[in-house]
Amino acid sequence: KVVCVTGASGFIASWLVKLLLQHDYTVKATVRDPNDPKKTQHLLSLDGAKERLHLFKADLLEEGSFDSVVDGCDGVFHTASPVAMDVVNPQAELIDPALKGTINVLRSCAKFPSVKRVVVTSSMAAVVFTGKPLTSEVLIDESWFSDPVLCKESKLWYVLSKTLAEEAAWKFSKENGIDMVTINPAWVIGPLIQPTLNLSAEVVLNLINDTLQQLMKISYRLVDVRDVANAHIQAYEIPEASGRYCLVEKDLHYSETVKILRKLYPELPLPEKCADDKPYAPSSRVSQEKVKSLGIHFTPLEVSLKDTVESLKEKNFVSF
Ligand code: NDP
Is the CB of 162 under 6 A from ligand 1? Predict the structure, then answer.
């Protein structure tokens, strides 16, 4: 079977490519710059890459850029989208590549009947910002859809980019008869395959360097990158899979995460107590009911955190 992965050099996509190769797929992977070894070397050295990985140059904002890649594929995994919080021009840096890029990829999928299913990497960002109150009694599920007006008013540009992209993807896929499934992960952590530091794993680095306790005094919904990659494959392989799948292992306050890290690494000078160490109260819960049908058994957060830290050490982003 031949599949395409867009944005293959990224954190999640690198794991997806690795697992797809392990599952004997032939992978047509898109990157923006195939000549940049930082974006390709880690992919080319994966098991099975020599025989079954093919790199293509494609850009989300170039119309028709994905045609030659998608042609002949049975499935397409669209993961490429900018992940950034501090941007100067949200339209150009986030919204255009997310929204126009997704439609660009789907347009290529609609052209080639070989494509049987498309799995799009959306986000919990496109789920939770509805304006409904988030209390511990609330159970969030796949029926929630973030409100773009609210995202815009709150200047949540990344959240807006993912919401608009998913909304447009559903409209386009329905109008064009594309069998599409979305995976909506929370904040993704876990070991890095790529040599560069991506934004979501950087949060763990910031946590262990946060001797001043300046960061993340909020709750984070977390999930392991290996579970996210696996969910993409299951959503592609299981014929009955449909709609959206929320992927959240745990909703954890900063102080709880620090507590786990302190237990794992007593040698780290992590604070006993956070400056705003309020009692832990999850803001809400996210249903794992639907994602169970993909056979996902979530990696426990303790394991994800340990493997992230070990990976950050191995790649010299931190030393202790
Ligand atoms: P990375 O930053 O590691 O990867 C993003 C990928 O998108 C890179 O390969 C990047 O290519 C590509 N990309 C960005 N802009 C363009 C463009 N204009 N044309 C082509 N490719 C482009 O991020 P993640 O792996 O974390 O994220 C992957 C997907 O998962 C995204 O859709 C993100 O929104 C989603 N997601 C991520 C979460 C997380 O916590 N990490 C949570 C929920 C969803 P290049 O390498 O060339 O820059």
Answer: yes
The Cα–Cα gap between 106 and 85 comes to 25
Asked if residue 9 has its Cβ within 6 Å of ligand 1, the reply is yes
Give the DSSP letter of residue 93.
I
Please list the alpha-helical segments (H only) found in 242-316: 254-264, 289-292, 301-314
- pLDDT tens digits for range 36-47: 999 999 999 999
DSSP letters of 260-274? HHHHH-TTS---SS-
The candidate with the shortest Cα–Cα distance to 237, out of 23, 70, 26, is 23
DSSP string for 164-221: HHHHHHHHHHHHTT--EEEEEE-EEES---SSSPPHHHHHHHHHHT-TT--S--SEEE
How many angstroms separate the alpha carbon of residue 124 from the centre of ligand 1?
15
CB count, 10 Å around CB of 132? 12
Neighbours of 48 (CB within 10 A): 17
Indicate if ipTM > 0.90. Answer: yes
**pLDDT tens-digit readout, 115-124:** 999 999 999 9
- What is the distance in A from the centroid of ligand 1 to the CA of 270? 30
> Among 295, 276, 299, which Cα is nearest to 212's?
276
Q: Please write the tens of the pLDDT for every residue from 88-139.
A: 999 999 999 999 999 999 999 999 999 999 999 999 999 999 999 888 889 9
The DSSP bridge partners found for residue 180 are 118
174 pLDDT above the threshold of 70 = yes
